[in-house]
TrEMBL record:
It holds the Pfam family MOSC. Residues 18-168 form the MOSC domain. It comes from the Bacteria. Gene3D superfamilies: PK beta-barrel domain-like (2.40.33.20). This is MOSC domain-containing protein. One of its GO terms (molecular function) is pyridoxal phosphate binding. It comes from Kaistia nematophila. InterPro entries: MoCF_Sase_C (IPR005302), MOSC_domain (IPR052716), Pyrv_Knase-like_insert_dom_sf (IPR011037).
Length: 180
């Protein structure tokens, strides 16, 4: 199977869901043009309150469509963009990528994976029970965060639904993703 972009979305405000778009433009070092989370420093309100000078490791939010399929099967009314992601993917194990993996989206854009999205109470404000549905435990009892990955834009470009995704793994020992 070839990994691909299913949908792209953005929101100019700090609303929870993002509106689907025909395309989005990624800006190197900044994020998604026109999105409330674009910038070199943190834009998520809770992080701005802690320290507004922190680097923005959450410029782009990616979610695998397989999670949306799982949530829909569990009775949740979700679709691309509804849980706040900018890029919905298919046929790529986002959660299994190491920190520093590069995702080449379409012909030009490159996103470096920085970590896992930490599911928060906003998911429950959208639909009751959604936060716990995006969390799981492995065989050893360790917490699994399933709500997608975050990244920074290394090379800008336009990203559209049906664009191919190519993964470039970092050299050296791979570091597992942690929440960012």
């Amino acid at each position: 199977m070839e990994s691909r972009v299913v949908a792209v979305a953005l929101s100019p405000t700090h609303s929870f869901s993002k509106a689907l778009q025909a395309e989005i433009r990624l800006i190197a070092g900044m994020g998604v043009e026109g999105d409330a989370h674009m910038g070199e420093t943190v834009k998520h309100r809770s992080r701005v309150a802690q320290d507004p000078t922190q680097p923005n490791l959450r410029q782009v939010h990616l979610v695998h469509a397989e999670l949306l399929d799982e949530l829909q099967a569990g009775g949740f009314a979700v679709g691309p963009g509804t849980i706040g992601e900018n890029v919905t993917t298919r046929d790529i194990d986002l959660l299994g990528l190491p920190r520093g993996a590069l995702l080449r989206l379409g012909p030009d854009a490159v996103v470096e994976v920085t970590g896992l999205r930490n599911p928060c109470i906003q998911l429950d404000h959208y639909q009751k029970g959604l936060t716990s549905a995006t969390l799981d435990r492995d065989a050893d009892g360790n917490l699994i965060r399933k709500a997608g990955v975050m990244g920074i834009v290394k090379a800008g470009g336009v990203v559209r639904p049906e664009d191919r995704i190519r993964v470039v793994l970092p050299t050296g020992p791979h570091q597992a993703l942690e929440r960012v």
